[in-house]
What we know:
5 strands; alpha/beta
Amino acid sequence: MAPLFNELFDPKQVVLELRAATQNEAILEIVDWLRVTERVANYYEFADLVMQREGRSSTNTGDGVAFPHARTDLVEQIVLGIGRSKTGVQFGESQSPVHLIFLIGVPERLVTDYLVCVGTIARIVKPQERRTALMEATTPEAFADVLRTGALLLE
């Protein structure tokens, strides 16, 4: 599982300073970042799918973390875009702002892999000290390193 997470935790897919004030703006900003990596077939359609899914049921965990996602064949493999907001973004009905957003696109055929991915990331960011380290990371590379280290500790 470690090689998969080393690929997923790509510093090029980390936005350290989200400008977004709302969940839809945050989703659009992260998906736009993924568009540059050319890993999403249709930026607008993918963003719309993620927003529709988030509108049905918020992925805000209450710990300052959200996992907006879409199962779609607009991606050929699991894609992870990460956004960090120092001020926080309102996701769903929760009064707790979200500071760490892990936006996931997963092909329809990889449902099990998706569940493993979300579960692993959730376990990585569960400890408050790790979320603090992610909030204090000064570069996308340092941010990705915190995630990789967390993944290794779970093995």
